[in-house]
Amino acid sequence: MKKTLAALALALGLAAAPAAAQVPAAIGVSYQPSLYWALPFHYATVKGWWAQVGLNPNFSTFPAGAPQVAAAAARSWDVGGTGSVPAVLGAVRFNLMTIGITNDESKTNAVMVRGDRFDAIRANPASLRGQRLLLTTNSTVHFAARRCLERLGVNPADMQFVNLGQAQIITALTSNNGDIAGVWAPNTYTLEERANARYLCSGAEANAIVPGALIVRSDFARERPDDVAKFLAVYLRGWSWAKANPAEARRLALDFYKQGGLEVSERAMDQEFALRPTFGLDEQLRMMARSGGAASTVDGWFSEIGKFATEVGTIPANPEASSYITDDFLKRVAANPQLRAFATEFDRR
Questions:
Q1: 106 with 184: CB under 8 angstroms?
Q2: CA angle at residue 165 from 149 to 31, to 5 degrees?
Q3: How do residues 250-294 score in pLDDT, each as one tens digit?
Q4: 25, 56, 167, 268: most buried, per Cβ within 10 A?
Q5: Number of CB atoms found within 10 A of residue 77's CB
Q6: Which of 247, 237, 216 is nearest to 41 (CA)?
Q7: 138 in the Ramachandran plot: left (φ > 0), alpha (ψ -120 to 50) or beta?
Q8: What backbone torsions phi and psi does residue 309 show, to the nearest 5 degrees?
Q9: What pLDDT digit, counting tens, does each position of 146-193 carry?
């Protein structure tokens, strides 16, 4: 294995020069802590993969996607991962580009009800009208919650949407100061365990596909396209490795969540890995391919997200998906034999 990695580093042009000349390129990486889709960043740090492609990440963390994408205006980060709703918001307001998919989190963005209220609401969804729904606005769960209400026959306008951070929502439900919440994993599992909360409806049940997005500032993409491709290769390698090493991947995931201030059970972590599909290089290329000018699968997903963002007034109009979604950097990874091998090394195991 060491010989293989050394050969790879040489092929990438990363190990041929003296150490003094091998200064990894700084790159700002943004994400939200204690979230499943951010795990490849942690795996890469633990395993030393960033340096192997000549990158030196400087991490920035945010409690939610809206403040994360807003920080791009100050060039405080270069690349990162976020939810699809903030990715669309970031495209419209800050010229952010979506260059890949982190995971499918449709099953883990959900409306949940405290246990002692669940049966009554489940039996009569119309009773939701006029009640408070605690959620984080301009987020993926905001999108999923609206689609869930529509599926249940409830007009979202008839609910009282209360904008809170996810930690505040957990505190509210566990202290009996709220009954109904829109949350994303792993907060869903926390509410199950601490408030006996139950799933009323997930995005998947409401046919609301909720992808996570890998994003980049458009100016950074123009200036350093090769480093953007290397970033993608590192991320893809993370999921490739995790699928080949499930036990260690879960152990490191528990550590990562704890570092972000959230302790979850092993059962909850098993749910994370079971409920959130991730995609390798070739899968991503197929999902993002536009054949004969037709919209890609990913275009369709984000068009629905943009429609939601327009409905709630977050953006003035739904942008064309092709104006901010590109597979160019995935293609760079695929076209470079060394980067492809690096990104997909564990796929064959």
A1: no
A2: 105
A3: 999 999 999 998 888 999 999 999 999 999 999 999 999 998 889
A4: 268
A5: 25
A6: 237
A7: left
A8: -60, -30
A9: 999 999 999 999 999 999 999 999 999 999 999 999 999 999 999 999
- Global confidence as pTM: 0.90
At 261 the three-state DSSP class reads: coil
Decide: 215 and 110 in contact? Cβ < 8 Å: no
Tokens of 255: 């550590």
Any alpha helices (H) in the chain, and if so which ranges?
Answer: 2-11, 39-47, 49-52, 65-70, 84-94, 115-123, 140-151, 166-174, 187-195, 218-223, 225-244, 246-259, 266-275, 281-288, 297-311, 328-335, 337-344
Q: Are 200 and 113 in contact (CB under 8 A)?
A: yes
- Structure tokens, 60: 């920035």
Distance CA 188, CA 170 (A): 9
Q: Output the CA torsion 101→224→321→290 (10° steps).
A: -80
User: How is residue 35 written in tokens?
Assistant: 């979230």
